[in-house]
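PT: before anyone asks, these are the final sequences, not the draft ones from last week. 241 residues across everything. Please model them as a single complex and drop the result in this thread when it's through.
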Amino acid sequence: MKLVVVLSALLLLSLAAVSSAEEFDFFYLVQQWPGSFCDTKTGCCFPDTGKPATDFSIHGMWPNYAKCKTQGELDGVIEMVTKGKKKCWPEFCNSEPLQLWEIKDLVKELDANWPTLACKGGKSIEFWSHEWEKHGTCSDLGQHGYFAAALGLKARHNLTAVLADTGIVPSDSETYSLSSINDAIKEGTGFAAKLECNRGVAGEVQLYQVYQCVDRSGENLIDCPVPVQGNCKNRVQLPAF
Ligand SMILES: *[C@@H]1O[C@H](CO)[C@@H](O)[C@H](O)[C@H]1NC(C)=O
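LR: through. Structure below.
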């Protein structure tokens, strides 16, 4: 009897979670530099569509909270799952799988701008599916809207071009000051971005990912509601690809 009560309470709570719109404050549009993805001990593999362009590519568009939430600030369902741990973004909001037919008209653009570089099969659709399931299901945009929004933002704010305009071009020998990269992005897109660096095989610090903040509509860049301090050092590389 007790079990039945607990189970029906859980069911009610999960139904409530499915039907309510997802609460989040902004998106991170995360783009990665392929040269930095590949110059690591793990390395990279090209997708079955061939070597991607020498251009930033999309990692994902991630719903995020402006302030991390603790137990009690979240609704009952998540509270039970996280047990007091802080949660800074929602994820896996429902179990709706990505349907290729929903994004059919975007596949060509997705192949060019959102290619997988992971060495597990070479199918970019698996990468898109993962991003959809983990982040897109929390976006309130729907499948087509989610992917179209990320592609639109990337096309309107071409980071490769923004950096090249100030002389920051891919090179295995040049290093660039972090402030010159920050300034170029602020100047070229209108907004500061958070920069993430990784280390190449030889230990050099390389610009790996750029996090731009986007409003809940998925249409406009905004001033980040969270600090944009990243982990890069004073001088960074943009390795050739
Ligand atoms: C972004 O700009 C670079 C450099 O000008 C260019 O090669 C690339 O094709 C552009 N990317 C897109 C998606 O237009």
